[in-house]
Specification:
By secondary structure, the protein is an alpha+beta fold. The chain is built from 17 helices and 29 strands.
């Protein structure tokens, strides 16, 4: 396994705006000759190196001194000029079709100007592009996927789960329901009217496109009157406000080896009534695909299709909760330009570390408290060791840790005969996060299993609980002596878990551990959360995860000024419509800002008035409390209402960034303990931590910065 950074010309830095193409190959002007202006060619629908489906929307900028009608465009010697039309001042745009697989050289020429060239790398519509080889086995779900009209897509056409693209029209009734449009040539009596964010009043009729891209099922939706002309990427629809909302779905357990039977849903009145285009794919629902690289690749391809159909959005907003939040954060950071602003709900920084480190620790604690030393700790002592707000969260998170066990969460669609079983089918499909991301981490040569960046060596579980007097030294020693780790199949083992250092380094370099210093540094973020730390049955969506993302932004960029944090209880407070409006105003202001300052300066300058960190009081009639959101319990008004509890690693001394996979070690030190330590106890601790205890004050083993963005993965 290896990864490569997407190629780009020397001395050229791509702008942070979406889908900027690159001018290449123009010949230098000979010395002594009169300098001529050049044609500039850019790819609009995708990056030049990530074209898919044999077509691309291209823009040719023509110098003012050159006649636009004299421009000729060709691809590999084939004249495609007829595909282009005037677009704005001194520009031509057009969708170039019938591209060959691989590199295609597009050349624009005109009398009196130097030629412009662009190399387009075209990939199959079935993928892959940069996520690496397709996962096998892969179960098609087209016959189970429900379309907006209630039918299914039928049986797939090939091994890549493809179907024929279909277009359906839905309309919104005056009673507030979406129903199929019975006749495209007639207006129903109960047809509602939509007023877009740009003030256009149009019939509330939605064009829904459903098809397959990258082996996933995608849906797009835009207000469009079927009695008007077909959508045209060079002529914006009256009902489209020029913005795109991309939806990301939650989950993770069972998110492998399947196409998926649902997108996040595109018939959303909050979006459509205001004229937003909406898009999603089954592979952008983590319950179907728990792999952020594949999610990014799929989103890139679906957005490309949208742009080629409707035109380039002024900006794209990503929205998702839980597993959707993983995607908004990691796609924005690792594949800049795909998302311009994100609404990240019930959020985590990433799936592989922000979540899994806490879940795996909960699994180990739960096993210790129930199986190894039952009745040795009270429930309150167990809760204190975990750091969670509720004792019930230990068991709840332990169950969720099944996503790292290759046998627990195989999807129902995957036949039992194809699943991994250590005794009867050791070569079967392993249903876990690491196996699903093997294109990044690679395999252990001796076992053939995916490398695993998971470690708990040196962690002093319960240290803060000991120092506060909640547990005693005997309990602390026994806990750390017998908590153990997780074996290759994520089953409890006597020895602590030791990470594969190659996987650890790759986690940092490739952005599987969210860095925050890639594209996310230049993206406005609204982090919103319904508080669940106090859920009666326990809940993994804990508030400290939002502060983990904030801490990583601070570490990478020296600021988190691009992140707004909002907290409420039981749906009382902020609304999706309000957050969407705020993000729209924020991005509109940034786009119109012609200043030369760094992006973060424009983000700060154009933040809408009234959009600040805040929480809302509980219950009906909730009132907004505007104050900076910080960590803690009972130290602010918001933290009195919504305490920021911690995690097992934070109790052990880690900080809220939660960005150390494998800690560096130092010898056991008596000064760690604020309780008396006998010589015998110190001897026990030294024996337990024979390689040392975690030194959280220094970077972890293998911890490093990003190798770059838009990385491409392959197998060697």
């Amino acid at each position: 396994m290896s990864f490569t950074r997407a190629a780009r010309p020397v001395e050229l830095v791509l702008a942070g705006t979406a889908f900027m193409g690159v001018l290449i190959g123009a010949s230098a002007t000979p010395a002594g000759s009169q300098e001529r202006e050049k044609l500039q060619v850019t790819a609009v629908s995708s990056r030049p190196g990530t074209v898919s489906g044999d077509d691309a929307l291209i823009r040719v900028e023509v110098p003012a001194s050159v006649a636009a009608d004299g421009v000729r465009v060709e691809v590999a010697g084939r004249d495609v000029t007829s595909s282009f039309r005037p677009s704005g001042d001194h520009a031509l745009m057009g969708v170039v079709k019938e591209l060959s697989k691989g590199d295609n050289t597009l050349t624009a020429r005109a009398p009196g100007a130097d030629a412009g060239q662009l190399i387009l790398k075209n990939h199959p519509i079935t993928g892959p592009i940069f996520a690496g080889p397709h996962e096998q086995p892969f179960v098609c779900d087209t016959a189970e996927f429900k379309t907006v009209t209630g039918g299914t897509l039928g049986q797939p056409l090939d091994k890549d789960c493809s179907v024929t693209t279909r277009v359906d029209y839905m309309y919104r009734t005056t009673a507030g329901k979406f129903v199929p449009l019975p006749d495209e040539n007639a207006r129903p009596a109960d047809l509602a009217t939509a007023t877009t964010s740009t003030g256009k009043k149009v019939p509330y009729i939605v064009r829904v496109e459903t098809g397959t891209i990258n082996r996933g099922i995608y849906e797009t939706a835009v207000l469009h009157d079927p009695q008007s002309a077909a959508p045209d990427p060079l002529q914006r629809e009256p009902g489209w406000n020029g913005r795109l909302v991309y939806g990301f779905g939650g989950g993770c357990n069972g998110g492998w080896y399947v196409q998926g039977r649902n997108t996040v849903g595109i018939m959303n009145d909050t979006y459509l009534s205001k004229g937003y285009g909406v898009a999603s794919s089954t592979l952008n629902v983590f319950g179907n695909n728990c792999n952020d690289v594949l999610a990014a690749e799929t989103m890139s391809m679906v957005k490309e299709r949208f742009v080629e159909t409707y035109g380039e959005p002024a900006f794209t907003i990503g929205n998702g909760c839980s597993g959707g939040s993983y995607q908004t954060h990691q796609i924005a950071d690792n594949y800049p330009g795909l998302l311009d602003g994100i609404l990240s709900g019930c959020s985590f920084p990433d799936v592989g570390f922000g979540t899994i480190q806490t879940l795996s620790d909960a699994q180990l604690l739960n096993h210790y408290f129930k199986e190894v030393a039952p009745n040795a700790f009270t429930e309150e002592q167990q809760r204190a060791v975990s750091g969670f707000g509720k004792w019930e969260s230990i068991g709840s998170l332990a169950r969720a840790a099944g996503r790292i066990d290759p046998t627990v969460y195989c999807p129902a669609q995957l036949p039992a005969a194809q699943r991994y079983n250590p005794d009867t089918n050791p070569d079967g499909a392993r249903c876990d996060v690491y196996s699903h991301t093997v294109n990044v981490y690679g395999e252990v040569p001796e076992t053939g299993k995916a490398r695993r960046p998971l470690d708990n060596t040196g962690i002093q579980y319960g240290l803060e609980a000991l120092n506060k007097g909640t547990i005693d030294m005997a309990q602390f020693i026994d806990l750390n002596r017998r908590i153990g780790g997780l074996d290759d199949d994520a089953k409890p083992a006597a020895e602590r878990t030791v990470a594969d250092l190659k996987a650890v380094r790759l986690a940092y370099r490739t952005g599987r551990m969210l860095n925050g210093g890639g594209g996310l540094a230049d993206v406005p973020i609204i982090d919103y959360r319904d508080y669940t730390d106090d859920a009666a049955t326990g809940d993994m969506h804990m508030r400290f995860h939002s502060f983990s993302t904030r801490a990583r932004l601070d570490k990478a960029n020296g600021t988190h000024a691009n992140q707004i944090m909002l907290t409420r209880s039981n749906g009382h407070g902020f609304t999706l419509a309000g957050m969407l409006s705020d993000m729209d105003r924020w991005l509109t202001g940034i786009k119109a800002d012609s200043g030369d300052e760094a992006p973060i300066e424009k983000i700060v300058r154009n933040k809408p008035q009234g959009l600040t960190d805040a929480c809302w009081t509980r219950g009906i009639g909730a009132k907004k409390i505007e104050e900076p959101q910080v960590e803690g319990i009972d130290n602010t008004e918001c933290n009195t209402l919504y305490p920021v509890w911690t995690s097992p690693r934070m109790v052990a001394g880690a900080d809220v960034a939660n960005d150390i996979v494998k800690c560096r070690k130092r010898p056991v030190d008596r000064s760690d303990y604020r309780v008396p330590v006998t010589e015998e106890e110190l001897k026990d601790l030294t024996a337990i931590f024979r390689t040392g205890v975690c030194d959280w004050s220094v970077p972890g083993a293998g911890q490093q910065g990003l190798a770059g963005t838009w990385l491409s993965f392959d197998q060697q």
